[in-house]
Amino acid sequence: MTEPLDEEEYERPRLGSAGPVRVRVPAKINLHLHVGPVRGDGFHELVTVYHAISLYDELSARRGDRLTLTMEGEGAGELPLDDDNLVLRAARALARYTQRQPLARLHLRKQIPIAAGLAGGSADAAAALVACDALWGTNLGRDELAKLAASIGSDVPFLVLGGTALGTGRGERVSPVLASGHSWHWVVAVANGGLSTPTVYRELDHLRDYGAAPPSAGSPERLLAALRQHDPAVLAAALGNDLQPAALSLRPELRHTLDAGHAAGALAGIVSGSGPTCVFLAADARHAESLAKELVDRGACRSAQPAYGPVAGARVV
Ligand code: C5P
């Protein structure tokens, strides 16, 4: 079920396309998220293991005489289409970097919920880089796009890359974790409403100031070793997220979601990134299907769907 992470296909030089160029981009979860102290620039030093899962947004890019963005699907209408929008910022950053005008008509079909801890906005920015690179024929290649991506957001380089990867710095320095071809099966349990990432990081700082935060997830060694074993029970015991206590402090009802997943037979459940989405590890695809249904039947979340990972990053389809 794993999609091949086909570097060659992506790296092949392309001429500028008349469009439309369609790019599919996945959501991410963090299998391990160690948050260090806050730095001078306001970001926290991280050691994380990113994992791209089969829940996708799609961005299409056509030639145009201006830069425009339209949107449909999950959360459309809630996201401002102004200059702060990450998609538009990504398109402008690529245009500046390649010294051309940012001319494109972009259309986003969203399935990844926003402010959910799944890096949906960062995913859309990664999609914009890959789509405009193909539309404009700038042919930067994945590594250079990932470098440019770091200027747009901490998670954006990972979403250009995809797969499973170690993230350090503020999350923007990514190196792939050797792919074994093994697929892991998850249930993505989406909550009502979102959580603001900066608020969740601040809450963790407060909990730590008051000595109320549990010990950190620490080094990712155990998680990385678990990934190599291909045994979901082993992986279940190694998942960890320092932001989880902060998300639970802000949204105590997420405890109910995590408990419901456990009661329904999930091998493990954690808050995804800064939340409020919770992800549950299943034994296999069929288990993920039944778990998702059970979570919905128990009213434990707004929606629940099976997903698998790792999958490729932002890619022309
Ligand atoms: O990099 P990005 O713009 O996605 O980060 C959003 C916010 O999340 C930052 O402004 C910061 O408040 C918080 N953050 C952090 N440390 C990180 C990543 C993000 O404090 N490593």
Automatic annotation (TrEMBL):
Looking at the record, the residues that make up the GHMP kinase N-terminal domain are 85-163
The record's top EC class is transferase
Instruction: Look up the record and give one Gene Ontology term from the biological process aspect.
Output: terpenoid biosynthetic process
Reactions catalysed, as given in the entry: 4-CDP-2-C-methyl-D-erythritol + ATP = 4-CDP-2-C-methyl-D-erythritol 2-phosphate + ADP + H(+)
Matching Pfam families? GHMP_kinases_C, GHMP_kinases_N
Stated family = Belongs to the GHMP kinase family. IspE subfamily.
Domain GHMP kinase C-terminal, first and last residues per copy: 223-297
Active-site residues (renumbered): K28, D155
Question: What's the protein called, per UniProt?
Answer: 4-diphosphocytidyl-2-C-methyl-D-erythritol kinase
